[in-house]
Amino acid sequence: MDGYGIFIPIILGSWAYISQIAQLTGLWWAEALISGALTGFIVGDFELGLQIGATLTLMSLGMWTYGGATMPDFNTGAIIGTAIGALGSGLEGGLAIAIPTSLLMTQLDVLGRATTTIFIHGADKQLEAMNLKGITKMHLLGQLPWGLSRGIPVFLAVWLGAGPIQSLIEWFPEWFIKGIQLSGKMLPALGFALLLSQINVKKFWPYLLIGFVLFAYLNMPLIGIALMALALSIIVMNIERRSSNV
């Protein structure tokens, strides 16, 4: 299968738009795991969507747009990577599309944010004219560039299929692709390092040691380690609650 027709690209493009804009209302739907799973469900490969979404989520740990700085758009990468991977290339092919897409989307993020300033200046002019309805209209229109900077690329990528995307990636020089692949392998480690830097490791080092032993020596999957950590957290909370009631 080379493509999806027109309806699935419209649905996924709409989700890319909505999930991005939803952040303005406090709904954090633009997460790689959420969008990967949803895309997998829509294209008929839920497991692939979870795998790609989870992989990109690991890469994003500890990253944030501090001070307005941009970061790789793993949400868009999860949507496009899952949709392309479900066409036949599977997890490996999906990640090969998702990671470069996430990194390349940083440029469109900058363009989307910069274009929004047009509506800010429009709101300033409406303010000078004391037109409150005009100010509200400019603020509502201001979300268009940000949302369209995700919706249009997702629609085009899913609609055109794997061929044009692969051709675009092959157009880049080999050193650039190798650099992106190396970055993709390093980002999960960087995410964990940033996350650990925010945790009081000196106080909670026994839990870190338990997780390391489970993963390195007993080969327990990350989901199993996460479930065990959840159980330990509940046990500790119950013990502390009982101690405080004594």
Question: What key phrases describe this protein's structure?
Answer:
246 residues, mainly alpha, globular
What does this structure look like?
With about 250 residues, the protein is mainly alpha-helical. Helix 4 (about 75-130) packs antiparallel against helix 5 (about 130-140) and helix 4 packs across helix 8 (about 175-195). The protein starts with 6 loop residues before the first helix and ends with a helix. It is globular and about 65 Å long. Helix content is about 80%, strand content about 0%. The longest helix is centred in the middle third of the chain and has 55 residues, at about 75-130.
- Specify the structural class: mainly alpha
List the total number of helices. Answer: 10
Tell me the number of strands. 0
* Strand fraction: under 5%
* Share of helix, binned: over 70%
Question: Rg to the nearest angstrom?
Answer: 21 Å
Shape: globular
Mean pLDDT: 82
Largest sheet: none
What string, H for helix and E for strand, traces the elements in order?
A: HHHHHHHHHH
Poorly predicted ranges: none
Measured distance between first and last alpha carbons: 65 Å
